[in-house]
Amino acid sequence: SQDEFQKQDADLLSLALDPTREGFASKIKVLNLSHNNIGKEGTKVIAKIFEINNIIEVFDISKNAMGVSGA
After folding, report:
1. Which neighbouring-strand residues pair with 38?
2. Angstrom distance (rounded) from CA 49 to CA 66
């Protein structure tokens, strides 16, 4: 659906939060993505960014559609 947070949306967000990307200048410490209808594939893509991003201190993905396998 149009309201669903798609995998390509998650890919773009991951790129924006990637501290290894040339020109990275984000100082985001709190990221609230609750109530965004993020599915399991989007959750998996976003989760990978935390392997390299240690700037974000608070991350809220409550009230999404990730299901058990996305969590």
Report:
1. 5
2. 17
